[in-house]
């Protein structure tokens, strides 16, 4: 099969050295494997700039959504009420989870290309004393908008609410000082900016907040508290863990550190994203999210004209080495291009050349 690069929000293109870690079969209760898990727990805290006195890390089997759901079912009980802020489908998925779990919540919904309004948020928090938790997605992968985390975290702190952040597609690619932001539960997964393969997610949690969550979960396998109790002892996972994925992830973190940590990865992603936006704009593609709200992760572009066919475009570009992503907006025709993973300036330049050829070929 032809190799191509994934220009998607994850799973994404990983290094051969990360993939090679999966050629070895490991035993879940052996010390070597538990050491790998413990090293990951420690490194994730470092990446979050958090100390083990105040914060802890828990890994959870499944895709990222499983981990988000484990936080929602564990961090809240039926006395609590969440303010769920959404401007995309990943936020809406959290609302759906809240319905499944039976949580009390207020849904504050804004347009997919807009930021939540600070005054409106203030008004809600001021007038609804029942709210105990604030929940938001950091980078809404639906569109690529980067939400104003500092603003929302300031409000959550001012009103003393527990802050839950889905940073699935940003953690590892954008610097975040989790203690300074006052984030109580930050969620991400193996196959996004840390550049591992899919199979588990992780939570960086404020220790005292997590310790208070015993008995909240209404799901056994998604009980984050119970998972933490077990894993925190000696690095042993509760139930079978994705051993190959965990080993690959450990390698991926080492490679992130070797690249220069999150600041260096951010620079690479940011540069990729600038080149991508500039290159495609020159070819007649308008980005959906204005520059100042654009994340360095993934970009949504409008179709350039009425005759543009995404399926045709997709196959043309795929045959020449890149896999793109369909759009996720209902009212406008769009597609998305991710720029995370093993993707460099020269890849973006090559992609722009391929798209230029395509546009030349179809416009005729
Ligand atoms: C990828 C992603 C998720 C999780 O999606 P899965 O398909 O379950 O891994 C959740 N939130 C955001 C913002 C994401 O980008």
- Which structural class should the secondary elements be placed in? alpha/beta
Mean pLDDT: 97
Regarding CATH, which class of the largest domain?
Answer: Alpha Beta
Following the backbone from N to C, one meets helices and strands in this order, namely EHHEHEHEHEEEHEHEEHHHHEHEEEH
CATH architecture group name of the largest domain:
3-Layer(aba) Sandwich
Please count the beta strands (DSSP E, at least 2 residues each). Answer: 14
CATH superfamily of the largest domain: Type I PLP-dependent aspartate aminotransferase-like (Major domain)
What is the assembly state of the chains in this entry?
A: single chain
DSSP strand (E) fraction? 15-25%
How many separate structural domains? 2
Spatial sequence of strands, sheet with the most strands? 2-10-9-8-5-3-4
What is the CA-atom radius of gyration, in angstroms? 21 Å
What's the helical proportion of residues?
A: 40-55%
CATH topology of the largest domain: Aspartate Aminotransferase, domain 2
Q: Compute the number of helices.
A: 13
Structure write-up:
The chain has 364 residues and is α/β, with parallel strands linked by helices. It has two domains: 5-9 and 261-363, Aspartate Aminotransferase, domain 1 (Alpha-Beta Complex), CATH 3.90.1150; 16-258, 3-Layer(aba) Sandwich (Aspartate Aminotransferase, domain 2), CATH 3.40.640. 43% of the residues lie in helices and 17% in strands. The chain is built from 13 helices and 14 strands. Strands 2-10-9-8-5-3-4 form a seven-stranded mixed sheet, with helices on both faces. A three-stranded antiparallel sheet has the order 11-14-13, covered by helices on one side. It has a two-stranded parallel sheet with strand order 1-12. The mean pLDDT is 97. The site of pyridoxal-5'-phosphate has 13 residues, from helix 3. Residues 9-10, 63-65, 68, 90, 137, 141, 166, 168-169, 189 line the site of pyridoxal-5'-phosphate. It catalyses: (2-aminoethyl)phosphonate + pyruvate = phosphonoacetaldehyde + L-alanine. One of its GO terms (biological process) is organic phosphonate catabolic process. Residues 54-327 form the Aminotransferase class V domain.
